[in-house]
Amino acid sequence: MPNGSLDKWLHPDQETYNGQNNLSLVCRVNIAIDVARALDYLHHDCHQPIVHCDLKPSNVLLDSNMTAHVGDFGLARILPQLTKPNQSSSSVGIKGTIGYAAPGKRPTDNLFETSLNLHKYARTSLPDHVMEIVDPMLLRNDNVITMRQLVNATRLKECLISMVKIGVECSIESSRDRMDMTKVVRELFKIRDVLERNHN
C-alpha cells in the first residue's frame, strides 16, 4: 500500500519523520471508520462470522487516498454460524496480539488504586482530562491553528470523549459486553459529522 501501515503514521521513526506525515483528527476518525466497517463486515456480513484476532496499527494499511484496509488474516478464525438467538459461541483458543483480545490480566491495573481499573478510570476522569491525553501529534504543524481554535469548543471535547469511550467499550474484558461493530460504525459517523461541521 502506498502510504504503508497506520503504525508508521502513529509512531514514525525519528530518522524518517519529516513533519509532513501527521494525521489530522478527521483523518484519524476516517481511518477508524474504515477499520470499523471492515470489522463489521467480517463479524456480520460474511457467510460465517470471522474474527481477525490480530488487529493492531501495523495490520491497518493505508492506500493513496488514506483509506484504511485491514490486513494480515493469518490468525483470523471463522466462527460457527449461530442458528438460535440465545445460542452462544466461545472464542476460547483464539490467539492474537496481546492487547487485541482482552487479556485476563490488564497491565494497567497496577497503575491505579485498589478497585479502579482502566475502564472505571476512563468513565470517571475522562471528561475532565480528555485534552491531556490527546496525541501530541495533533497539536503540531498544520494542526496547531485548527486545534488551538477548537481546544475549548464543547463539540471537539465531546468528540474526543466519544472516541475514547468507543475504544474503552470495545476493549471490555467480556466480549459479550463490548460495543457491537455496527453501533461503533454508526457512532464514528456521528463523530465525523460533528467534526466536519465544526471544521467548516
Automatic annotation (TrEMBL):
Topological type in the membrane: Single-pass membrane protein
EC number(s) reported in the record: 2.7.11.1
Main localisation: membrane
GO terms assigned for molecular function: ATP binding; protein serine/threonine kinase activity
GO cellular component, one term: plasma membrane
Chemical reaction(s) catalysed: L-threonyl-[protein] + ATP = O-phospho-L-threonyl-[protein] + ADP + H(+); L-seryl-[protein] + ATP = O-phospho-L-seryl-[protein] + ADP + H(+)
Subcellular location: Cell membrane
Top EC group: transferase
Gene3D superfamilies: Transferase(Phosphotransferase) domain 1
Sequence ranges assigned to domain Protein kinase in this UniProt record: 1-200
Coiled-coil stretches: none
Keywords carried by this UniProt record: ATP-binding, Cell membrane, Glycoprotein, Kinase, Leucine-rich repeat, Membrane, Nucleotide-binding, Phosphoprotein, Receptor, Repeat, Serine/threonine-protein kinase, Signal, Transferase, Transmembrane, Transmembrane helix
Protein's name according to its UniProt entry: non-specific serine/threonine protein kinase
